[in-house]
Amino acid sequence: MINVVGLGYIGLPTALMMASHGVEVVGTDYNKELVATLNAGRTTFKEDGLDELFAAAVKAGIKFTTEYQKTDMYIVSVPTPYDKFSKKVDACYVVAAVKEVMKVCPKGATVVIESTVSPGTIDKYVRPVIAANGFKIGIDINLVHAPERIIPGNMVYELLHNNRTIGADSKEIGEKVKSYYATFCQGEIVVTDIRTAEMTKVVENTFRAVNIAFANELSRICRHDNMDVYEIIRICNMHPRVNILQPGPGVGGHCISVDPWFLVGDYPQLAKVIDESMKTNDSQPGFVLERIYEIMKENWITDNRRVGLYGITYKENVDDIRESPTLQMLDIQERHLARPLKSFDPFFTSKAIVPNQILDFDQFLSEVDMVVVMVKHDHIKQNWGKLSGKVVLDCHNICPLEGVYHI
Ligand code: SAJ
Predict the structure, then answer these.
(1) Please, what is the average pLDDT of the chain?
(2) Model-level pTM?
(3) Which residues 6+ apart lie within 8 Å of 260 measured at CB?
(4) Please, which residues bridge with residue 28 across strands?
(5) Are strands 109-113 and 164-168 parallel, antiparallel or unpaired?
(6) Cα separation of 101 and 135, whole Å?
(7) How many domains, in total, are found in the chain?
(8) Which residue segment(s) compose the domain that 92 sits in?
(9) Residue 255 catalytic?
(10) Annotated catalytic, 124?
């Protein structure tokens, strides 16, 4: 039996996937409310195919509890934030979960860490916890790092099809853990050592962060001299070895906007490009806010109650607001003691999560003269007609209306 510890955005789909592929799974989370929701037959976030996967896993016998299980395999999938000052990974949740596992696990158990951690974190923080409980690593307890790669919005498909990495102290244990993931994963599963696995995961997200920062920087250069950044990127990408990403209103989510900071925190003298890239991405919501004020002025809009942000989530078609550019922008306004702009998000229509949020789309539109498209949800693509006559700042270059402003 596998005890999956942490039933959030990664732990839950992973637990469901294994259970629906014939593995006996118990999911553990210390959040009683979350466990009660799952036990009542409901999933805790929206994701394509998740409800169907949940139904299959429940049928296959998955259990949810707040208790840690006595078993021979654990998958730990808890958040790893970073310390805002040192930028280093904060492994407190991983350490707390492993401590709980140590209280119940028998000798011979394997502990798999799925959470993203910077290289060396497992050596520095996890091994000592295991040793402090009197276990010899590699003899009494096996330690493995199996970072995930799934993208919110396409998690179920990517869980099934992505290649994976498994880092282990020995090939034999790596292969054993691989056999569990191979029950559902149709991609290639590479077995390597733990530190390499830690580094690959952080590097993958850093690669994307740096490339988004490059696109965001281009958007500023092009704005400065009135060039069309989208047309320039489109043409450049026709070169066989150029593939520039898209500028946007900022970078959110719990991965791309967080993980690269681990490298800056651990290697401050070396990670220069990464540091600048993260600063560029973090300052993009401020750049877009300035652009909003500029367009307001140009259109004689003097009251910011007449401006609305469309989209609060960190990206399209997910209900996840962690580190979202809209929240970052509202934060800047709050620091400047400015009245927060109005906002609307089709994923949050029953209860407001930010000040001045309107829950009904038509009402939102009736209260604003200017709409800023912060998130390219499918919902807005089906409603362009309703925006005609409004001043529109499209942060993603997707709006087909005439006279739309861009970042
Ligand atoms: N974004 C841009 N321009 C782009 C692409 C993205 O501004 O061209 C923005 C998005 O709007 C969003 C942010 O970047 O605010 C991050 O979104 P994302 O779709 O790039 O990535 P995440 O954070 O949802 O998921 C990433 C993925 N990592 C990579 O693609 C290397 C995913 O595979 C990882 O599993 C996930 O992080 C994770 O959990 O680490």
Answers:
(1) 97
(2) 0.95
(3) 202, 205, 206, 209, 210, 274, 277, 278
(4) 5, 65
(5) unpaired
(6) 12
(7) 2
(8) 2-192
(9) yes
(10) no
